[in-house]
Automatic annotation (TrEMBL), chains A, B, C, D:
Pathway in which this enzyme or protein is active: Amino-acid biosynthesis; L-arginine biosynthesis; L-arginine from L-ornithine and carbamoyl phosphate: step 2/3
Name of the coding gene: argG
Record's protein name: Argininosuccinate synthase
Source organism phylogeny: Bacteria, Pseudomonadati, Pseudomonadota, Gammaproteobacteria, Chromatiales
Domain Arginosuccinate synthase C-terminal: 178-397
Group of enzyme by EC: ligase
Length: 405, 405, 405, 405
């Protein structure tokens, strides 16, 4: 009775999406195309191909997308100094639009009617996948098994796997208590003991960074070169966006940088607790602000700061492929034309400290004007009187009115 | 010829304002009232009284304003998670409105015609003093000697002091190369070698904090109790606002927390470089966000985040005593009614880490809904489908229109 | 099997909600409480009681809520100069929160488990009713028959009515082609020929206003007295909020004022075309801006203007009972303390023209400063030079940087 | 002693700027270059050349800039639906950047050191001229005679003219009581009896429009074709931007459209009262919103609405040539790609009524979804339940928390 003949599944090769693969065929009687992407999550994607083949999939997409991810998603987002709710670097959120795009494109390439994903009905990821897919393929159908099926516990899932010849790695009860997600920008942890917001995560949970305590006793200095708001070289070595992220992840991770423990507000209406490691991103945010501080006009910087929370919410909520995000991006990108130069940083036991910034071409820092020494007339201090008097005028008229009553 | 008969001078007791005191009398033939406030700058104010007396001042105001400063200025500002240009905790800016208010009030009490201050014509402080004074005493006159006189170098100032019997402490050439400002919230450094934004500040510059390197190898844990967005107790001990700041400054300073090195945009139109130590404030910002993350509605939190940059600019630019700041404050304060509970923090070598947050009365964290486990129907995952479908509708209509062309 | 024992129905007495009444009993086997409110829609509510009695309803609420509606909903909204999408005065939107509140309260009073309404699944009203009800009674259940039943056409509805002994007034096919909604603030028209946005509404559609062509050839002048942003008297006669609206509706309607023809964006994701008559509201908006122009500080006015679109969207989307609307309202209300005085208007053939405004207590218009004549030193024109120079400083530094390259 | 050798004067040919011309030579001993532009003010510019020649000016620039003004300033501003303080169409403000640009360019062409203008020290125009000039020629000097000289009354000005052989047209005391400014977009009136905000302007003041009372008894219908947010044809006739404005001014003026009587907040800190006639602009604003209502995505439209007040203030305050205005313009312009189609309007005695809008290429109005009739499944009403439930979730959690206390 279903009209779905072929579905493109975002397939990790793990238990959950393997179960989904079988369940889709069984429930919808449809063919399944698998799509597995390497976006820097740190796990091999080759096994996913083998598993898909073993499960009889005929059309298998396995793709290395690290550069595209870093260049077209992560870097543009960092141009805005993006933080959700003041702290979250959006590591999960920013990876979804790329997956959604490829799902939609592969659906077109394979003449599939639908896409499917393994995100639950409680989280933000379902929204991000589906809004993206609908925006790019408005006629697509979406299957979200977690919202449909009755496999509502891990036990039921394992039982389903066993009865459907899906290989289960490891034994029951041995897996991590955390729900994790990783890509080139970050790794996240949710669930399990973290569901108590008073619980301090145990050291063993963190996977990408050493603790500040375990970090080296000597600081690491580094210099980042910027062109149009993007890092193009580290310590003088020209690097691609993905290589920049990789190197900063390594340096940050070694120095205990980038851990975050947060209660955040999901788009679907609830609060949730998440822990994140974003070593490279943490460095990038700090450095980018420093580069902008030297090269961006004040009002441009302030405009960006005022628009940023909205831009961050758009990404968090899954609206990357919306026209309003696109317009904001154009404004943000245009602002970066002058964000060129070098930032010098010190990394030390969890701290990222800016220790220098310079721009041969675009510095707006005018030492001859700013100086505390004599400035030879570069700035006329008497101008300040008129500036203040006229800025005060409305305040004085307000106050005089009250006095006269 | 001047119509100024009496002027209230913001008097530190130092060389500059002592010179100003003499210069005011000489230039304007007016009487001078001195006002010296202890707002936690860490220097004794008693000597200022002695010096004023020695200089023949008849009306001398020396006031301890630490509690008022913390309670009515610092704490309200932190309710907004205020950061100027993404990083600056506004330590200098927030102290000026209180000084401006007392200058205006003392002018009224002493029937003075004018106020005077020792801020230069290049900085933000002149604006903050004067906008405040004009807003509270619209008929007041303002004398800003640095904008008027010809004592445009330190040498000339010293010569003036010597020829006018003003005692100069220390010899020529021995003072700090930095222009500093301190109060209960922070200490700042500007000028000298910092005028090169590529220059890394030397360790000896910093006065309030040890370096992360020199901080203890053991972390410090602490618990902060909040009521209506304000810290009311530390580790269970009820403390006044000033005592909270004092204690957090001590704990932060010992753990290498709160250093900032920044290029910022002044209201008068130039970029300047400043270094700041705000140990207690750095802890407060992090903890307050954590307390809000548990107790504040999502849209309220986002509204606050979007208004914050404007609120920060108002304070930075000197508009504390404006009606628009007052309105924003009312909104911010009203939002804090539910910000009650406890935050647990770990301080370690420059890092402030939130390791727990709880609120017995106001937590909006609903574990039964957020859980990754079965939720017994607390949340209906099928609701997400309609939620996404309708949020996607406009995107799909947009996309269909393009397809049909 | 349903757990719903009693439901409170928003009951107009018309065909649709009478069918719903029967359908609820039949489908849910539940008792129905009816709630009918007079909010100025211009139809008698007494017949609704008789009809409910005839249909065997035991608990019948019929309430006159015009004053509450005008005072607690319409007037607060107009303090913000609220317009949705630049034009719509939110006449329908603002009535829903009051209905939602009474539904929730009556559910509590009658120990009902659920509420029900006659809004369709395509419009904004369902959202407004339900968000309000959930916010005030988080445990309530909601029944929206139009989303559930199969009576998807007028024919089916009429057949259902006939087979269930529901009296149908008028014959099939004679009703208005428009879907209408009215209350003390406005009447709206949707559907039918309006679904073609190129179609010009016929004159016969409009019910509250004469056309500008048919309006009197002589203008009507009137004076509105404001206290704290609200109109308290017209032409010197003190009037309650509802009486103010009534009188302005009459005066506006007679003078052809307040018609609007709009394509708007619904919260559920589609565009729709609506025509509105809001004669009193159109006058109020124009007059309130005029009163504020004289009595509101510039930056306060601008802050309100920047927040207004968000505030309007909150009301349009149904978030009246949200904490963020409440916070914005507090800011808006606080801003109105000085909005006192009188506005003089001319009404003429569709035009509302402000011809005078004055405030004995709160005018910030300072003629001695603003005058084009000599001002005897009230304003020092030389202050403007410094004001401009410092506002230009960053622009000049930017430009000099480009020149030097 | 002056370092100014040559100055470019914005020269109207009238008494004031003729006096300035002489005064500049006398005061600064400098050569004067005159610049006179036709931007549609409705006065011949040729006489200005003759007068300048008679006054011995050697370098005379007289330029026809109507098309440039309409195309590069007026049209881009209307893409944003720009209103200052909710009502003012910025007719004066938008002309200044073009004058400032030409002054700066002519200064470069003629190797002048300075520019001069005839704006007073109290108004906004001085700011707009000078910020523009400084942004485009950061090294330029500015002479604003009204801020410098002692010709502070009309009498003194006339005496100066007589003693310096400057021809004065008309006798003393016969000129208009209003200070006026005109260009292709509007004419403004300030001063004189308007300085009493309770005074209703007399009919004789208005110059461009007939009163609604005097307008024809028959409506005028017209159709405007839009391409990328700009009007490109009226009633099917392709017209240049200036011709569009001219024609709409004529049609609007004949139909009594576009009068505005306003108290506004100047950038220099005072309130002032102005009356404006903007017949074409009033039509354009209404029509553009209608075109956007059909073709612009909801969130794009809302983003524009939220940014508009800031954009309007930038123009009003003189920041056209700032980087932040430029960035906002890029966002606004990019949003207009889909604003294509036709708007049908009715003009009648002061009213502009939209009576139809269509877009063959870009309409986002989906009648099959919006319809009140059966939609054959185009929209699934059941989706609304989940949409509302998840949007309500945070409100319900908030409310449940309160209940549980």
């Amino acid at each position: 009775m279903s009209t779905i003949k072929k579905v493109v599944l975002a397939y990790s090769g793990g238990l959950d999406t393997s179960v989904i693969l079988k369940w889709l065929r069984e429930t919808y009687g449809c063919e399944v195309v698998t799509f597995t992407a390497d976006i820097g999550q740190g796990e091999e994607v080759a096994p996913a191909r083998a598993k898909a083949e073993a499960l009889g999939v005929k059309e298998i997409y396995v793709e290395e997308l690290c550069e595209e991810f870093a260049r077209d998603y992560v870097f543009p987002m960092f141009r805005a100094n993006t933080l959700y709710e003041g702290e979250y670097l959006l590591g999960t959120s920013i990876a979804r639009p790329l997956i959604a795009k490829r799902l939609a494109e592969i659906a077109s390439e394979t003449s599939a009617d639908a896409i499917a994903h393994g995100a639950t009905g409680k989280g933000n990821d379902q929204v991000r996948f589906e809004l993206g897919a609908y925006a790019l393929r408005p006629d697509i159908q979406v299957i979200a098994p977690w919202r449909e099926w009755d496999l509502t516990s891990r036990e039921k899932l394992l039982t389903y796997a066993e009865t459907h010849d899906i290989p289960v790695e490891g034994k029951r009860g041995t897996r991590s208590p955390y729900s994790m997600d990783a890509n080139l920008l970050h790794i996240s942890y949710e669930g399990g003991p973290l569901e108590d917001p008073w619980f301090e995560p145990e050291e063993a949970m963190w996977r990408w960074t050493v603790s500040p305590e375990a970090a080296p006793n000597e600081p690491t200095y580094l210099e980042l070169d910027y062109r149009c708001g993007d890092i193009v070289a580290i310590n003088g070595e020209v690097l691609s966006p993905a290589k920049v992220l990789e190197m900063l992840n390594r340096l940050g991770g070694e120095n205990g940088i980038g851990r975050l423990d947060l209660v955040e507000n999901r788009y679907v209406g609830m609060k949730s607790r998440g822990c994140y490691e974003t070593p490279g991103g943490t460095i990038m945010l700090k450095a980018h602000r420093a580069m902008e501080s030297l090269t961006l006009d004040r009002e441009v910087a302030h405009l960006k700061d005022e628009l940023m929370p909205r831009y961050a919410s758009l990404i968090y909520n899954g609206y990357w492929w919306s026209p309003e995000r696109s317009l904001l991006q154009q404004l943000i990108d245009a602002s970066q034309a002058t964000v060129n130069g070098t930032v010098r940083l010190k990394l030390y036991k969890g701290n990222v400290t800016v220790v220098g910034r310079q721009s041969k071409t675009d510095s707006l820092f005018a030492p001859e004007i700013a100086t505390f020494e004599e400035d030879a007339g570069a700035y006329n201090q008497q101008d300040a009187e008129g500036f203040i008097k006229l800025n005060a005028l409305r305040l004085r008229i307000d106050a005089l009115k009250k006095l006269s009553l």
